[in-house]
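Standup notes, structure subgroup. Blocker cleared on the nicotinamide-adenine-dinucleotide input:
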Amino acid sequence: MNILVTGGAGYIGSHTVVELMKAGIDVVVVDNLVNSSKESLKRVEAITGKAVPFVEADIRDRAAMKKIFAENKFDAVIHFAGLKAVGESVQKPLMYYENNISGSLVLFEEMAAAGCKNIIFSSSATVYGDPAFVPITEECPKGKITNPYGRTKDMLEQILTDIQTADPDWNVILLRYFNPIGAHESGTIGENPNGIPNNLMPYITQVAVGKLKELGVFGNDYDTPDGTCIRDYIHVVDLADGHVKALNRIQQNPGLAIYNLGTGTGSSVLDVIHAFEEANGVKIPFSFKPRRAGDVAVNYCDAAKAKKELGWEAKFNLTDMCRDSWRWQKNNPNGYED
Ligand code: NAD
Ligand code: UD1
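Run returned:
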């Protein structure tokens, strides 16, 4: 199999490229490096012992995309490329719609033109909004989305659904990720946020490594056992493996299929802090802060559909995730700049 991986130099993309190559699948990565570095792919090459074919290009660049499809015959596309910072998307909605929507439209058009009609798309649990019920199954109705980033995910799900309805030759798998954390066991690739992290685990690891003083815990008055928000954290290597399994599924011509990728276990913010401290023997100073706008109290999935239809389930627990996140951060205090 030969797969085009858009955004393959990024956090989830680089881990997925490792798992694809380990499974003997050929890949070509296209990335404009707007939120990543070529170094991640060098490290993927060191892990796998194989070269990673890489095209530095923007998916909005039609000529570049045409050239990629002309020069390769792909069985499927795994589409990670996109901007993903929630707060930034509120400040710069046009940038998010232009990059995520326009870029995807060019990609889908060039796929159709090349006759490559199999796509796995990175969606998000954010499409469930404040979920109608937990654990969240794929049947859960979509909820009110509070930011442009999340709306691009919702819109792209709809656009791909419409494309598949119009032309049943398309196979579309929408993967709704819960909260990916952790890093490859080698400690050589991981999440590398720009500036002060917005997300919980990179914030914790930067406190642990001494770059930030203390963690602010956003809200301790939620209707949860310890008052802090509950999320479904999933190891990025498990998530990567979910893409390998989804590729097997796409070869069975599923038409449109949607899967939650999470562990099915909810952990509170305090659970994560304590798990990190125990796994790594490092203290995380924290204080409670007001709630963060847009946060929902409880969000975790029912991952039974992915188990049944993809033969996939998460293998790593929260302790593994904390250990691997810390190994990456400790070995690379400045990410790929070290
Ligand atoms: P990331 O920023 O590390 O990776 C995205 C990659 O896409 C980057 O390497 C970036 O340079 C590239 N990119 C962005 N715009 C591009 C363009 N126009 N042309 C070419 N390349 C472009 O993010 P990630 O965490 O690896 O996320 C991957 C995908 O999964 C994204 O679509 C994201 O929205 C989605 N997702 C992520 C999470 C999460 O918590 N990390 C959760 C749900 C969904
Ligand atoms: C966030 C985004 C979501 C996106 C996902 C992956 C929001 C509202 N949601 O999910 O759309 O798909 O990231 O990029 O931004 N927390 C703290 N202190 C911190 C950081 C986080 O207490 O410094 C808490 C949050 O309140 C939340 C939990 O930790 O309860 C997880 O936060 P985060 O890692 O940002 O993920 P989500 O908010 O679930």
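Discussed briefly. The two ends are 34 Å apart (CA to CA).
Next: hand off to the docking folks.
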